[in-house]
Design a protein that fits this description.
By secondary structure, the protein is mainly α. The protein contains eleven helices and no strands. It has helices at about 1-25, 35-45, 45-55, 55-70, 70-80, 85-105, 105-115, 120-145, 150-160, 160-170, 175-190.
Length: about 190
């Protein structure tokens, strides 16, 4: 029985090592120039292990995206949609979205930056946008704005990583001021 347990843990342990290596390479701005062999070496596993568990570079990024789904900020974001007064839920949504962008900023900069030329990065960006849109549509059902289509369009812009980056990095606002600004824009949108 102990042999079975150690075998069942081995894939999870190697998977975690590989995902940590992908995250580190993205954080360092080196993932897109890296090969699957580079990822395997950094994780301390064989190339065959990476291919067995992930299949491709696209599989690596998709699996990384799944780890984002477990992010405390995203879990709080999803929970906030149905809690409290609708405008409070909107404020919480915006704050948690910004917290997620801040927590994964360096990694997301890499992925968003090459989404036009890297299918794996494009898949992640597309998935994140779709997930955010679905969550905002759910929130808007509670808010009941006069023009839901316009409100959705504006909230998609307000809660995007690109908007966060524009305010944080290019306008030089500290995180708390970014959140305050985004909340003001979100209120104006609905």
């Amino acid at each position: 029985m102990s042999v079975y347990r150690s075998r069942s843990r081995a894939p999870a342990a190697s998977r975690a090592k590989v995902l940590a290596a992908v995250h580190d390479l993205l954080d360092a701005g080196a993932f897109h120039a890296s090969t699957v062999e580079d990822v395997a070496a950094r994780a301390g596993v064989s190339r065959a292990t990476v291919y067995q568990q992930f299949g491709s570079r696209l599989g690596l990024v998709d699996a990384l995206c799944e780890t984002f789904d477990a992010s405390p900020a995203l879990l709080a974001l999803r929970a906030s949609i149905d809690e409290g007064e609708p405008l409070d839920a909107l404020d919480a949504f915006v704050g948690h979205a910004a917290d997620f962008w801040a927590a994964e900023e360096r990694v997301l900069l890499q992925l968003y930056g090459v989404a036009a030329i890297d299918p794996a990065a494009e898949a992640l960006v597309t998935r994140q946008r779709g997930d955010r849109r679905a969550e905002l549509e759910r929130l808007l059902r509670r808010l009941r704005p006069k023009d839901a289509k316009r409100a959705l369009a504006l909230l998609l812009v307000v809660t995007s990583f690109e908007t966060y980056e524009e305010l944080r990095r290019h306008a030089g606002l500290p995180h708390r001021d970014v959140v305050r600004t985004l909340r003001q824009l979100a209120h104006a949108a609905v």
